[in-house]
Amino acid sequence: MGGSGDKGAVCVTGGTGYVGSWLIKVLLEHGYSVHATVRPDPDNKRDLSFLTSLPGADERLQIFRADLNHPESFDAAIHGCKGVLHVAAPMDFEDNEPEAVVTQRAIDGALGILKACSRSETVKRVIYTSSISAVYLNKSNVEMMDESHWTDVDYVRSELNSYISSYAISKTLTEKAAFEFANEHGLDLVSIIPPMVVGPFICPKMQGSTRAALAPIFGVTLRVLSAPSNEVGPSTYTSRERGQV
Ligand SMILES: NC(=O)c1ccc[n+]([C@@H]2O[C@H](COP(=O)([O-])OP(=O)(O)OC[C@H]3O[C@@H](n4cnc5c(N)ncnc54)[C@H](OP(=O)(O)O)[C@@H]3O)[C@@H](O)[C@H]2O)c1
Question: Which CDD domains does this entry report, sorted A to Z (predicted)?
Fold first, then answer.
């Protein structure tokens, strides 16, 4: 792998997704080797040419198969990397699965990835992609929230019961579990807290957030746009990082 100018390898989980595919593109442009994880595809039917045709991909992109349901499946992709960007997460706003299942998978997957990073002896920093939904669903009743605020899982469970409950609970508890592990094991972890990410996409599937942003223009009603409650939610939000960058 690599060649002159190679800055070392970085693992990106969820490489087929909206955010993950952009990260792969930008990392390749900046001279990194990328270990991208995509979900197993036993019949090899999935077209990954949007990744493999990126500039620099021939020389510096390796695709690995991994699934959060099998946390150890990320080990091979993490091996030899200096950094890991953990992005993969099911974006299910329709609560198709019970919250407990979604949350356990997300926690087990993240902890499996962090354990592999700890064992690796090469990973210097892990970036976890959290979400605004791990911050603003609480009763703090302030106009502006930052990274010191956390979603109140009990409040979401007992009072909110909205379209976003499973997602918000899983993002909150996974981020907390990840920091607990990182603190106990001396792992350098940074959590990015994006609000709604919109804009051009290089993956084939239009992501939920972009669909939601376009819905009012096309007159489409989406559950994701029905605000959970007007008693929660910041009027202003700045995306910040939890941890030392
Ligand atoms: N988009 C936003 O507005 C937004 C806002 C805040 C935070 N985020 C966070 O950003 C991250 C990426 O979101 P996105 O918008 O890029 O979503 P996305 O396009 O749906 O990408 C999600 C990625 O996760 C993968 N994935 C889902 N379930 C998996 C599993 N069981 N095992 C392994 N991989 C799995 C998906 O694989 P498949 O392609 O096979 O489904 C896909 O590659 C998520 O952690 C999300 O919580 C996004």
Answer: FR_SDR_e
The model carries a pTM of 0.90
Using CA positions, which residue lies closest to atom 22 of ligand 1? 17
Q: Which residues touch 96 (CB under 8 Å, ≥6 apart)?
A: none
What tens digit of pLDDT does each residue of 144-178 get?
A: 999 999 999 999 998 886 678 899 999 999 999 99
Is 158 inside a domain boundary?
Answer: yes
Q: Where are the beta strands (DSSP E) in the chain?
A: 9-12, 33-38, 61-65, 83-86, 125-129, 144-145, 189-192, 236-237, 241-242
The CA distance from 51 to 158, in Å, is 42
If one residue of 19, 104, 239 were mutated to test the ligand 1 pocket, choosing by the most ligand atoms within 8 A of its CB, it would be 19
Domain with residue 80: its CATH number is 3.40.50.720
Among 25, 27, 5, 23, which residue's Cα sits nearest to residue 13? 23
59 falls within a domain: yes
